[in-house]
Amino acid sequence: MTDNQQSSRSKGNDSESIAIEYLLDKGYKIVKRNFKFGKSGEIDIIARHGNVLVFIEVKSRKSYEYGSPAESVPQSKRNSIFHAARGYLYVNKLDNIESRFDFIGIDLRNQPPIIEHIENAF
């Protein structure tokens, strides 16, 4: 793993930890972190909010030079999240369960970071 990959993964872990703290404060129960299914599908956080299973993508930015966090989830990434979510439901034999896909964007330009939570984002 290159230094840049390690730095990016470390930033991702830090951002996911911020998101988890936020979700716990909002009454979510964390089910799984960094669920991988196959070679292309990964979900940052899987949580429960009441009876709803929530698949959550987390993105953060230290700069908006390349756009906001929300702008960094192209359709191809959404497709891989959908694929991983289907895999999670299959592996865990979960049928007829209400679920949704949320997005959490973290603006690291500020301290404390500004968190944007979009329910049913895609």
Global mean pLDDT: 88
Q: Into which percentage range does the β-strand content fall? A: 25-35%
Q: What gap, in angstroms, lies between the N and C termini? A: 31 Å
What is the C-alpha radius of gyration, as a whole number of Å? Answer: 14 Å
Largest sheet geometry = 5 strands, mixed
What's the CATH class label? Answer: Alpha Beta
Report on this model:
The protein has one domain (3-118): Trna Endonuclease, Chain: A, domain 1 (3-Layer(aba) Sandwich), CATH 3.40.1350. Strand 1 (29-37) and strand 2 form a beta hairpin. Strands 1-2-3-4-5 form a five-stranded mixed β-sheet. It has helices spanning 3-25, 75-91, and strands at residues 29-37, 41-49, 52-61, 99-107, 114-118. It has 122 residues and is α+β, with helices and mostly antiparallel strands. It contains two helices and five strands. The longest helix has 23 residues, at 3-25.
